[in-house]
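Example 4.3 (complexes with small molecules)
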Amino acid sequence: MPVEEIKKLQDEKLVRQVKYVYDNVKYYRDLMDKKGVKPEDIKGTEDLHKLPFLKKDDLREAYPYGLLGTDIKNCVRIHSTSGTTGKRVVAFYTQHDVDMWEDCCARAIVAAGGSSDDVCQVCYGYGLFTGGAGLHGGSHKVGCLTLPMSSGNTDRQIQFMMDLNSTFLCCTPSYAAYLGESLKEKGYKPEDNKLRAGIFGAEPWTEEMRRDIEKALGIKAYDIYGLTEISGPGVAFECEEQKGMHINEDHFIAEIIDPETGEPLPIGTKGELVFTSLDKEGFPMLRYRTRDICVLSREKCSCGRTFLKMTKPMGRSDDMMIIRGVNVFPSQIETVLLKQGYAPNYQIILDRVNNSDTFDINVEMNPDDFPDSPKAITSKEKKLQDAMKAMLGINPKIHLVAPKTIERSEGKAVRIIDKRKRYGITT
Ligand code: DLL
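Answer. The structure with DLL bound is encoded below.
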């Protein structure tokens, strides 16, 4: 579609969607009223900046139903991702929303060269996480033979990949790298598998990692971006050019803002990505601040697609970490520590070993609750680890350390030591 037509479509959809949200979502109507904006003030995309932002904190405040755009009986699905504290983000989908989302994922598969001739192995997690369901739905829409593997069980992944001749692989880039290593360990060469392409996202990865994965698996590796609040994977996807991801602009408007001031920035400037969903019914987000930092570009793409492109996220404007594909906030860790009777004196150490993230948390013991035997310490560590697993969904290694041994900083506490930075991983 020519860019002018995309703009016209967005203008029309935006006007309709703002009215829909104003009429149906009291929480957002209150935000608009507070800012003195009425639906009639929004005549097209040039008026977008007049609308208030939505942030992760709003989602927590409105949890669980406060941002629903329609009666709950019209919704057919939920998915969920981490919140900043105990409350997770819960997103609702009508059948129309699921269809639109699956179309977006289907586009990603087609852009990577997929068709109904392909066997698509989906090893993103199935469940509350959007990765499995999204790529699964997209794969069906394309007509691929879909292998709903979910994550883990590497031996079975490899057996099915080889026996059922998988041609497409959908998983996190770190799991793709791990599969590559595991295949090698089992004595397979890259040319022994039938894989042609992989669609990898949900966590930051680098061009070096892309080359490694392509070499190890003998495939083309494509990036895919998305977030639960806006639907899930497929908000943006890479094409054959493998240089930036096309944003599905018929469904989402992308803006870049200054993360400090909230002011919109021109295309080509680095800043925080903000999305407006144009036709979602269940969980319609207007000007949702993703906290992902990137650059947008309208340069002509050799694939012929006219959709705006985004670079890989280059970092975040908040303290969210992505560990083994799972979003983790330090505030969640603090919530657990306080509930378990610890002071919030802790340090998170992240590293990457054999393409897999390691996640350690050093926690200071309380001076008045100092276990006197190694066995008692181990048992306390285990208890804390279980509580962390319940909150975060992944297992950190807990190390209880003596009181006052974690270095105090004069300014902001240094809570996160991310050694993955040396591999270019920025969140
Ligand atoms: O991670 C959706 C997804 C699933 C995307 C499968 C791609 C593939 P959330 O759990 O809500 O949703 O996490 C969203 O993950 O704001 C980014 O910070 C990060 N992220 C997602 N895709 C990429 C990517 C899914 N390709 C958050 N590169 C987003 C870097 C990514 N970071």
